[in-house]
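Recall that a protein's primary structure is simply its ordered list of amino acids. Everything else, from secondary elements to tertiary packing, is in principle encoded there. The following example makes that idea concrete.
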Amino acid sequence: MSVHWRPPLTQLEVGVDGLKVDDVKDDTKVIIARPHHTYKDEEVPVIPPIVHSATYRVKSVQHYSDILQEGGCIYVRLNNPTCEAVECSMKILEHGAGSVTFGSGMAAITTSLLSFLKAGDHVVSSASIYSGTYDFIKNHLPQLNIEVTFVGFAIEEFEKALRPNTKVLYSESISNPRVSVLDVEAFAKLGQSRNVTTMIDATLSTPILLKPIDYGVDIVIHSGTKYLGGHSDLCAGISSARTEDQWRRVFMNRRSFGGILSPFEASLLLRGLRTLPLRMRRECENAQRLAEYLSGHPGVSTVFYPGLKDHPDHELTKRQMKGGFGAMINFDIKGGLEPAKAFVQNLRVIQLAVSLGGVDSLISHPASMTHGPMIMDANDRQKHGITDGQIRFSVGVEDPEDLINDLRHALDKALLIHGA
């Protein structure tokens, strides 16, 4: 594989009878941004097929060399046509130069970080991030002689932490699980002013609500398992780059690290992407109603949702996210640990489970689950604002009245049992 490889093109980029990328909106782009292939016959499949071959026949030794230089399919670990179909859709949605698919969100995160870091470098990261990412940055990067500094979400903290050997600034568009919102434009400008690569995990905002590359962010990462897939039935990750050179670094390391997505998972992910705009609209509408309900309930002490006017990042979110405030709510149950556990265990419609972003509403208790003792100790949780009574609520597409009734039932049960 050589530096001449380029991201796969979509039909829209080439032009469909004069129709170009900017002529249609995201809802349409995600449906018609098919890979650009030359078919000999008129019968072109409407849905890109699942190509599960592990290897590909070449015409000659020279043909093999040509593919290595210019691009094409040789072996499944290098690339796959079904994965390329996903990458085409994501590239168009993200407004990037190219996208790379992975077998998990963590594969996308780790490969992206290691594509721009080496021994002796320094990374500055937000502390309130996905627990798996936090573990990798805190415990694994130092083993590679990469220095780490954790900060909050304020851009001033990132700037203060910069060193001469800082190579990457890492954060999330909306923090998991605290639901803080990053000033994406200021984050990108800080990186550009110091020649430092900026990376954002934009899983919770999705490319429907926010396009960080438009603000100048270099690398945008998603756990495709979540909103992009949208049905809790696959595991995937995606990394999109602002420039072709950045794309190539991530793409080449995926080849070396072996984290490519299965074509079967890619097909499920492509199907999920086609309904992403519809699902996000419904989930954002539901989340707004549920956050307003929870903020008025006597058993709830605090609610963190960017759509509420008392959220510290409400105005920022209005300015940089288009079409909604996301579908993640964070709230605290009065009384702490035991009432919180009783609450999540008495829900009947909303399901107690890790993960997020599917059509099903899912709820979890971070202090004992995703950010529990296996990942963070009590001091780390306190430092990062994760309380014993905190609840992470991923809102799905169910009827909002049914969800409100379920919340009311479980809250009443928890208050009755523990008298909080």
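The chain has a mean pLDDT of 92. The first strand starts at residue 98 and ends at 102.
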